[in-house]
UniProtKB/TrEMBL annotation:
<keyword id="KW-1003">Cell membrane</keyword>
<dbReference type="GO" id="GO:0005886">
    <property type="term" value="C:plasma membrane"/>
</dbReference>
<dbReference type="InterPro" id="IPR000515">
    <property type="entry name" value="MetI-like"/>
</dbReference>
<keyword id="KW-0812">Transmembrane</keyword>
<feature type="transmembrane region" description="Helical">
    <location>
        <begin position="167"/>
        <end position="192"/>
    </location>
</feature>
<feature type="transmembrane region" description="Helical">
    <location>
        <begin position="275"/>
        <end position="297"/>
    </location>
</feature>
<dbReference type="InterPro" id="IPR035906">
    <property type="entry name" value="MetI-like_sf"/>
</dbReference>
<keyword id="KW-1133">Transmembrane helix</keyword>
<feature type="transmembrane region" description="Helical">
    <location>
        <begin position="213"/>
        <end position="232"/>
    </location>
</feature>
<protein>
    <submittedName>
        <fullName>Sugar ABC transporter permease</fullName>
    </submittedName>
</protein>
<dbReference type="InterPro" id="IPR051393">
    <property type="entry name" value="ABC_transporter_permease"/>
</dbReference>
<feature type="transmembrane region" description="Helical">
    <location>
        <begin position="125"/>
        <end position="147"/>
    </location>
</feature>
<comment type="similarity">
    <text>Belongs to the binding-protein-dependent transport system permease family.</text>
</comment>
<feature type="compositionally biased region" description="Basic and acidic residues">
    <location>
        <begin position="11"/>
        <end position="22"/>
    </location>
</feature>
<feature type="domain" description="ABC transmembrane type-1">
    <location>
        <begin position="88"/>
        <end position="296"/>
    </location>
</feature>
<keyword id="KW-0472">Membrane</keyword>
<dbReference type="Pfam" id="PF00528">
    <property type="entry name" value="BPD_transp_1"/>
</dbReference>
Amino acid sequence: MTTTQLPTAAEPRRVEVPKKPPRRQREGAAWVFLSPWVLGACVLTLLPMAVSFYLSFTDYDLFNSPNWVGLRNYTQMFTEDPRYWRSVGATLMYVVIAVPLQLALALVVALALKNMKHGRAFYRSAFYAPSLLGASMSIALVWRAIFNDGGTVDNLFGTGGWVNKPGWALFAVALLTVWQFGAPMVIFLAGLQQIPGELYEAAEVDGASRWRQFLSITVPMLSPVIFFNLVLQTIQAFQVFTPAFAVSAGKGGPADSTLFYTLYLYDRGFVASHMGYASAMAWVLLIAIGAITAVLFRTSRSWVFYASEGDR
């Protein structure tokens, strides 16, 4: 007599979960991928900064060994160099003029593009193009020709060349910066597109005018973007070099009216071969930009509004 064996239920199949590699091995892989950036930061940024900090306490002329002089470069800078303070004044004047005008123009154009129904992409690219070209030496030389004696401005208005007048040369350089409003304009446009349209519809129902909508809705909702552009453009303005170098032929004239800080730093370091003095100037500029940025962040608490108080 034969017996049949009943089929048994299939046993559940075990799925082996791959083990994670050890933590040390994962960290090693991360450092391998980060190594190009870390190497570049150390060799191209941190090491030059350390050397510059050391040279700021020395008398170094690029040809002989550095000679330690302590704080002499700093004391000479603040107490014995009138051109240094003229460069500080010219730079501050430039920042005060160029940055607000550039941001105001960028915001106006962004508002116009936001309400444009046709051709927005073309005009956005056209207005952004000067931001890509304006920092080049060729554009700066063309700008100098426009504002020089016998140039376009002189022929149209008969005022003479701005670049040869101490009271007008700085304005010519500032206008070149204002003309490069494309980058902040694109950022403003992106911020404007994030403002809910329901806010404007509710304001219209309440009878608010366009100006009241701008002050009560657009500006508060756009304040984080305004703050971002303000910080970014202020830092860039303190480091302006190419326009002043091209307009004044590297001299900062006329009468030191375009002797910006970075231009005078270049003159001390690479023209006069006082690299120790130039290094001290560079560190003072770094500290000044850091202090101004900290002040902007501190004051932003009273006028920058975020989506919730927890984000502030």
